[in-house]
Amino acid sequence: MRYKLPVLPFLLAGCVLSSCQDHQLTAPIQPTVTTLVRGLVGPIGVETDASGRVFVSEQGTGNNDGRVSEIAPDGTIRPVVTGLYSFRRPDNELDATDHLLAADGMLYILNAKGLYTISLASINAGNASVAASSLTPENIQQFVIDYNFAQDTGESHLYNMTLGPDGALYFADAAANAVIRRSKTGQLSVVTAVPGIPNPTPVGPPVIQSVPTGITYDSRQFAMSTLLGFPFPAGKAMIYRMDLGGNTTVFQQTFNSLVDIENDGIGNYLVLEFGTFGAQGFTPKTGRLLRAKGSSSDVILDNLNMPTDLKVADNHTAYLLSMGDGTLSKITF
């Protein structure tokens, strides 16, 4: 099953936010929310590097017009990589660019053509943008497609990624429903397949695929967010934990169509719900940002309209991306 997000606008509501990985945020009831950028075309991933620079990926319109841009503090957009593969399929969904990762001095870019890599040191105001045609993507997808899974979808969609403790990259594949490992020297392996769930509704297949959409590491274990396939039953999407051996356990199953996950710094997780699924598809303004605690969740932001990515940059700053509005918002505490 190929996983793509519909394009719809979003709304932010002020609340308490606490953070990810190496950061721990304490926010006032009403943090300052500023829209930094408007007019992004299909934005789906936001990332910051060690110096605090902000990067955003755009899927484009389907005419090989995807790009990755650096966003200046004043909201100025400076394209970094242009002309990334972007193709609109007959079902009107895009094969294009997904998430970003800044690690080990490199900016990693996931695209339907493969994994692009560009040196962070080469990205500066004095350099022109790089044409994607001058870069050679690493075709990890073919390895996944050729792999003989027990429940084989015959597809690959490398959607998100994180850096593991061994210096390897770990990918959430949202079409093969698996976690893929790429070693520091480029060797590929399948870490685990993400299990589906019995369909709790009378509509659709007997087993619903559990699509991994986000992956993070907290110095002890991985965690994955998932989005269930059709009919997208409410309250059934899961957070999985995974050890280095690929063994998975369910941390919590109470969510609606998760699209991102971050560590909160105290053993729990920040997760983004894309929204609830209704008769007309995903219902606008039903997305939420939650702190998942295992047996319960705190609502941090609600009334979000199809949010796609959250990035906590430091103890005082986070960024939230909307694919539908084409906006990047900065949240300051």
Automatic annotation (TrEMBL):
<dbReference type="InterPro" id="IPR015943">
    <property type="entry name" value="WD40/YVTN_repeat-like_dom_sf"/>
</dbReference>
<feature type="signal peptide">
    <location>
        <begin position="1"/>
        <end position="20"/>
    </location>
</feature>
<dbReference type="InterPro" id="IPR048031">
    <property type="entry name" value="ScyD/ScyE-like"/>
</dbReference>
<protein>
    <submittedName>
        <fullName>ScyD/ScyE family protein</fullName>
    </submittedName>
</protein>
<keyword id="KW-0732">Signal</keyword>
